[in-house]
Amino acid sequence: MQTSPLLAMLLVITAGAAIALQSPLNAALGRHIGSSLGAATVSFGIGFALLLVVTIAYGHGDRLLESAHAPRILLTGGVLGAFLVWATLSSVTVLGVLTMSAVLILGQIAAALVIDHMGLFGVAPREVSLTRLLAAGLVAAGVVLSRY
């Protein structure tokens, strides 16, 4: 499915807002049930069920079987997603939503610089330029400003 750059940006902005909402919601669920791991499990379970229904509704259910033949490294996304949900719901009450989100973005940018530079996972290699390093530095400054 082709997506225009503007639509892609709107989708990612919406996803970013969803992460900001998801973390305090999951943290509240964790407090309610007395377990941050349990809350992450419930969150993932509901997300899994929804994605399964949508995947089948779009006629892609048979494609799920192909994951059994994928390189194992490609299956670690679920592990990383589970860690993301648990880490953010465990941290949001300590850091607040703004700082937690800023730190999350800083981590994403640091990893993105490495992924882009090395051309990992089929991404076209891009140089680590001064401009890109300054962008990461500004996000790091934003983390500091959001906290102190």
Automatic annotation (TrEMBL):
Keyword Nucleotidyltransferase listed: no
Pfam families in UniProt: DMT_YdcZ (PF04657)
InterPro entries in alphabetical order: YdcZ
Assigned keywords, A-Z: Membrane, Transmembrane, Transmembrane helix
GO cellular component: plasma membrane
Membrane-crossing residue ranges in chain numbering: 37-58, 70-89, 95-115, 127-145
Keyword Membrane: yes
UniProt superkingdom: Bacteria
Record-given protein name: DMT family transporter
Native source organism of the sequence: Roseovarius gahaiensis
Phylogenetic placement of the source organism: Bacteria, Pseudomonadati, Pseudomonadota, Alphaproteobacteria, Rhodobacterales
